[in-house]
């Protein structure tokens, strides 16, 4: 009989076991052994060098986990604040190792460093867990997540203190931010788990066991173990495939798909499939996984493999309407129906994401429509394990219209991620809403150039009714959130799902038909087009007449002045002064002093603007402010102030100031004092800048320059 102690050993998880192994130094005896051989100054850091490497590796892994986080991003953000602080402290410790010689020789410090490593491992594991649905379920309920989060924060702060690392995160304001992040994420997760459906979460609020089975199959396919039973797809006896009792015109779709009927009466699509012997097992394993995916109501069912007239076929659920693309080309789809279709497709993507499966080709052509108008995600030709690199996809040109910008520069080399999938889903939503292929009038190079610069498809507002306008507005905001160029702010699938779920609840399906004759719903309705600009970060609220003022760039205003378009220039300078532009202040002062553009002068206001710009270092403003002292009403001329600003302008490179100051010094016009040396210096500077007046004075006085 094994002892309880033996049982406990066997129950230790692999993560815990590896932690214990790495933490074996965390006792005084081991620490003394590790530090006992140190003697020479500088040797004290040697035992820490591998520890620095371990911490750096852990931080890299944490960053990777965070980059791939699908859920609870706010919780992860709070922990990443700590990770970033720890990374800074470690780098600082490495850089100042000589100054930390005493700490490095301290046995307690050595043990504390190992404890710090354990805390970082715990943070890594926690982020990995809460950022995925299957990992989140390990905590069973929200309180467990909260307790673990709070204990990690306490452990981190304690460990940082033990190592004498300082941060600005240990305060009430930060704790408030942490708790708000925690509560926000847990509330969102609760909504999500309650609405996602039983094909992902069962009645006990646990991840469906089918998803666990899929994960096991995928792991076996990617890393096969010796002496394991080969993974195989279901095989259907050809005798069980019957011809339909009543034929239809579309019983054959192209040369590869034929409709048959199973014994239970289900219509099925039999699609020719040639399996190459070299890849036969890999394909069969993939098809076995595909068979499990049928548990999702919104993924086209794969029944298995069979034969028709000695030809290998894949047997799928029959989709009466064909693809969603075929549907929208034939019919006008009602707006409420579009909401439900979008939500159903999103459910399929959530199911795949939970299984860590990427589809790689999200578009309406790969969504099949049943007799009941239920969308089913299909065509998993390129679907594969999440960690695999994108293989050679021959249809790159076909899918580029839906492709994420980060994939466009080199689709074969750049790794495809779930964030790419979200972008493609955003394009699918646009395609569904407007019932047309994206960028229809652009070629591949034009699309790449447009999207890589941040451009997106136009948003055409359909103004038939207030309900339609509201639905469109909500849809457009979801699309824009999925279109973000920066993957770090691109919406998560959970965020999109919850918004679609809320939209579907507000506008449930009614008695109006889902599919209407083409041209009957949208043919004559007023359309308002909104161009999504290069930033593609947010959409103006179409329910309001929301416009931003047109601000003419300062450079355009100066160019307008050169072209004597004084009205445009004045408008530009007047607007840019509001932004506290020192150059705009100078130009506005110049226009007020010259009476441009309408002949009205305001020397007092001009003087004030010149001084503000002059004090900000604008040489032209310093010149004009100096001379404005002569003739501005209410200002007493001060020659010292005048010379001071004129000198600043001359030293700042203003040619006119250099000439005037040189002339005044050279001819004794300043305070009655003649200073040939200073005058010559400034005249030479102006002459070197080809000022004809300065050149004449120097030549008349036979002074070389």
UniProtKB/TrEMBL annotation:
Q: Which InterPro entries match?
A: Adaptor_Cbl_N_dom_sf, Kinase-like_dom_sf, MLKL-like_MCAfunc, Prot_kinase_dom, Sel1-like, Ser-Thr/Tyr_kinase_cat_dom, Ser/Thr_Kinases-Pseudokinases, TPR-like_helical_dom_sf
Q: Which PANTHER family match?
A: MITOGEN-ACTIVATED PROTEIN KINASE KINASE KINASE 20 (PTHR44329:SF288), SERINE/THREONINE-PROTEIN KINASE TNNI3K-RELATED (PTHR44329)
- Species of provenance: Diversispora epigaea
Task: Enumerate the GO terms in the molecular function aspect.
Answer: ATP binding; protein serine/threonine kinase activity
Q: Give the range the annotation lists for the signal sequence.
A: none
Q: Name one GO biological process term.
A: cell surface receptor signaling pathway
The organism sits in which domain of life?
Eukaryota
The cross-references to Pfam families, in alphabetical order and at most eight, read: PK_Tyr_Ser-Thr (PF07714), Sel1 (PF08238)
Instruction: Give coiled-coil spans as residue ranges.
Output: 76-103
What protein is this chain from? Protein kinase domain-containing protein
Ranges of Basic and acidic residues compositional bias? Answer: 1-23
User: Which keywords does the record carry?
Assistant: ATP-binding, Coiled coil, Kinase, Nucleotide-binding, Transferase
State the CDD domains in the record.
Answer: MLKL_NTD
The record places domain Protein kinase at 190-515
Give the residue ranges for region: Disordered. 1-27
- What PROSITE patterns has UniProt attached to this entry? PROTEIN_KINASE_DOM (PS50011), PROTEIN_KINASE_TYR (PS00109)
- Organism lineage string: Eukaryota, Fungi, Fungi incertae sedis, Mucoromycota, Glomeromycotina
